[in-house]
Amino acid sequence: MDTKAAANQHATEHSLPDMVAVLSRTPPALNAFLRDLPDVWTRRNEDGDTWSVFDVIGHLVCGERVDWMPRAKIILQFGETRVFDPFDRLAQRRESEGKSLHQLLDEFGSLRAANLDELRGFNLTPEDLRRRGRHPALGAVTLSQLLATWAAHDLTHLHQISRIMAHQCRAAVGPWSDYLGVLRCEGHSS
Amino acid sequence: MDTKAAANQHATEHSLPDMVAVLSRTPPALNAFLRDLPDVWTRRNEDGDTWSVFDVIGHLVCGERVDWMPRAKIILQFGETRVFDPFDRLAQRRESEGKSLHQLLDEFGSLRAANLDELRGFNLTPEDLRRRGRHPALGAVTLSQLLATWAAHDLTHLHQISRIMAHQCRAAVGPWSDYLGVLRCEGHSS
Questions:
Q1: pTM (whole model) above 0.80
Q2: Burial letters for A98-130: b for 16+ Cβ neighbours within 10 Å, e otherwise?
Q3: HEC states along B78-128?
Q4: Residue A32: its chain B contacts at CB < 8 A?
Q5: Is there a contact between B56 and B164 (Cβ–Cβ < 8 Å)?
Q6: From CA A132, how far away is CA A110, in angstroms rounded?
Q7: Which of B15, B1, B3 is nearest to B129 (CA)?
Q8: Could you give the CA distance from residue A14 to residue A149 in angstroms, rounded to a whole number?
Q9: Chain A, window 74-103: residues with a beta carbon less than 8 angstroms from a chain B beta carbon
Q10: Searching chain B, which residue's CA lies closest to the CA of residue A153?
Q11: How far apart are the C-alpha atoms of A52 and A101, rounded to whole Å?
Q12: Looking at beta carbons, which residues of chain A come within 8 Å of B158?
């Protein structure tokens, strides 16, 4: 294996502790940032059918329940022979109903901690991380890619949360809006 | 005053507690997210001359020292008769030299807390918040706009931090990169 291939292998396969480092920090960070924030920041969206911060946290809770770890287990148990169940990106509309942001932050924290405990218990080897599963739309994906995406998915929603919140003070910043990149972000989601 | 004007006044002038709610939470949130993260997340940038997470925290520290509160005091003392001192967006290259991320996070937390204590001590009235100062490039701005921009500036850098970190796992997520909006964000800063 040449140096570049070795570096790529490092980037795609041996970064499990790096991914877990992010995954374990997201719930306490969101808790420190969002708990008891006035509703103006957490219940308003970016107009139309977009999500509020409350919706985003509900989505993260759903991911902990039915997306990341169930898919990791499908890869480990069935490899490519069993396609992942599709993930309902709107499930939180139903699941979060009647809950407070406090409750969702608590649920996210405890579900994430339990999932990471279970993940650590798997004692994944480099060979495990190279195992492939089958995504219903993307086709073959490795366990390593799934786990990196779990962390990157946290980051994409932190990105979204900062943008939703910035939208709420768009008028209040007056002429400074030209200097604030987050106010020009259009989300990039398909 | 008609209803719309009243709503606008609310959005631009009476939201000081909302702004302080964000400003007070940013340091503990960044601390929970970034402290002791592996360097792969905090010391790498988005290629070329872009900033690392370490650079961003250094920039936030500089803002606490020489930007936000000094400008608020200029408005309160001199109104539009004294133009703000320009803010050096690259000062952290010098100021952060030899420091650890721990140190920068600690400095950011203690400077922000002291600044917010001082701000609360001003007991700002709606009339104070309408006072105008003069920005070297943007012209007339109000104290209220300055304080909202302080909070929105935190949000723009949270947005940037999530994007810098996501960039580090661009290769590791494999085909999922198409689904992660943060990986398509180009920053929007001028």
A1: yes
A2: ebebeebbbbbbebbeebbeebeeeebeeebbe
A3: HHHHCECCCCCCCHHHHHCCCCCHHHHHHHHHHHHHHHHHHHHHCCCCHHH
A4: 25, 28-29, 31-32
A5: yes
A6: 28
A7: B15
A8: 14
A9: none
A10: B180
A11: 11
A12: 158, 161-162
Q: Mind listing the pLDDT tens digit of every residue in chain A (190 residues)?
A: 444 444 444 444 458 999 999 999 999 999 999 999 999 999 999 999 999 999 999 999 999 999 999 999 999 999 999 999 888 878 878 888 899 999 999 999 999 999 999 999 999 999 999 999 999 999 999 999 999 999 999 999 999 999 999 999 999 999 999 999 899 887 765 4
**Euclidean distance between CA atoms B25 and B6, whole angstroms:** 29
What tokens does A87 get? Answer: 């993930």
- Contact yes or no for A155/A21 (Cβ under 8 A): no
CB of B1 less than 8 A from some CB of A: no
Is residue A130 a contact partner of residue A143, using CB atoms and an 8 Å limit? Answer: yes
